[in-house]
Design a protein that fits this description.
This protein is of the alpha/beta class and about 375 residues long. Helix content is about 45%, strand content about 15%. The protein folds into two domains: about 190 residues, Rossmann fold (3-Layer(aba) Sandwich); about 170 residues, Glycogen Phosphorylase B (Rossmann fold, 3-Layer(aba) Sandwich).
């Protein structure tokens, strides 16, 4: 079977791209002939790489041009199945790893003023993306939608009327051998020494690029409201407006309690150094970082608009609250930073993802592909 996976551009810190790279390795092991269709993709050599890079000016033209290029490739019939991770009408499979764009805009508008909401409504790119999304879900060639959480599945069914038999929940896979509780013994002391953090100081870890979407502003406010005033936050990830969040931390009196560490290709040392993980995201279908944290035995505090919430058992492997509930998040972080709480909740955190290893994900994907190809 010849399978094409479509993703416009690879960024080494993107969750969707990390999913695709993991899926590629697992699918190759199961004998699937996989080609990546992209403008550029640093890691695609082993899988086969088909460049689709038409000229463009601006992101609306960029996405529309890439869409037309992929549609031409699909039409020539060289692949048995084409799975897109972009909103492109006419592909056989869509993996909704980025969720529903319309839902993201609605949830983001909760934090924005009237002028910003108006700008979003008038934006050519947002209007194009919403139209392409609706056309894709209603296209006759679409045979399956891979949803990485039940939250996304239910949202797509409600908004677009996609038949239940076309919606398949396949959670992201996590490498349970690489992300493991033993990282604590391997990295805790060395990372904390490098950052001058005492062993008895509670460390909260945040991992994610795109700080607005991931809820860093609310997390900083919650950190300032914690009763445990020594708790320290490690921020791993990239954002072009990082300076704004640094200033917010200073204004909240958190300059000595927040460390901005930038993007890291290997986050495992920081999982090992942390006591808990926090991601009060405005909207996230299923963040890989939350799965990795759970696999490392870190209890997780996240939001009701995060797909990882469906994996968390309240009070046992983590806590869940509204993405804008600053006080509630402060209370939950205090609970996670209680002496003994991280170690007590660690086994339940690990169990939450023990059924999501890469082999299981690959087996479910190949079973779906086999059904569709037949």
């Amino acid at each position: 079977m010849k399978l094409a996976i479509v993703r416009q551009k690879y960024t080494p810190f993107g969750g969707a791209e990390r999913f695709v790279e993991r899926a590629l390795a697992a699918l190759r092991n199961q004998g699937t002939d996989v080609t990546v269709i992209a403008r550029e993709w640093e890691g695609a050599a082993d899988a086969g790489f088909l460049r689709c890079d038409p000229f463009y000016l601006g992101r609306t033209w960029r996405d529309a041009g890439f869409c037309r290029g992929v549609q031409r490739i699909v039409a020539d019939g060289r692949f048995d199945l084409v799975q897109s991770h972009e909103r492109i009408p006419g592909c056989h499979i869509f993996r909704a790893g980025d969720g529903v764009h319309a839902t993201w805009l609605e949830l983001r508008d909760r934090t924005r003023g009237r002028l910003a909401r108006l700008a979003t409504a008038l934006s050519p790119w947002h209007r194009y993306t919403r139209a392409a999304e609706a056309a894709m879900f209603r296209h006759g060639r679409l045979r399956a939608v891979i949803c990485n959480s039940k939250m996304v599945r239910d949202d797509i069914a409600r908004r677009f009327g996609v038949a239940e038999e076309r919606l398949h929940v396949i959670h992201n896979g996590v490498d349970l051998a690489r992300f493991r509780p033993a990282l604590r013994d391997e990295h805790r002391r060395s990372v904390r020494q490098a950052l001058a953090i005492a062993d008895d100081v509670p460390v909260i870890l945040f991992v994610g690029s795109g700080f607005e979407r991931k809820g860093l502003a609310v997390l900083l406010q919650a950190l300032a409201g914690m009763a445990r005033t020594k708790a320290t936050l490690l921020v791993v990830g990239r954002d072009g407006r990082e300076g704004r969040y640094r200033r917010q931390a200073e204004e909240l009196g958190l300059a000595g309690r927040v460390r901005f560490l930038g993007g890291r290709e290997d986050v495992r040392p920081y999982y090992g150094a942390a006591d808990c993980f926090a991601l009060p995201t405005l909207y996230d279908p299923l963040p890989n970082a939350a799965l990795e944290a759970l696999a490392c035995g870190l209890p997780v505090a996240t939001s009701t608009s995060c797909g990882a919430a469906e994996l968390i058992e309240e009070g046992k492997s983590g806590y869940i609250c509204d993405a804008l509930d600053v006080r509630g998040l402060s209370q939950r972080l205090d609970a996670l930073c209680e002496p003994g709480a991280p170690s007590a909740m660690g086994p339940a955190a690990r169990r939450a993802v023990e059924g999501l290893d890469l082999a299981v994900m690959a087996a479910r994907l190949t079973a779906l592909y086999g059904t569709l190809a037949a």
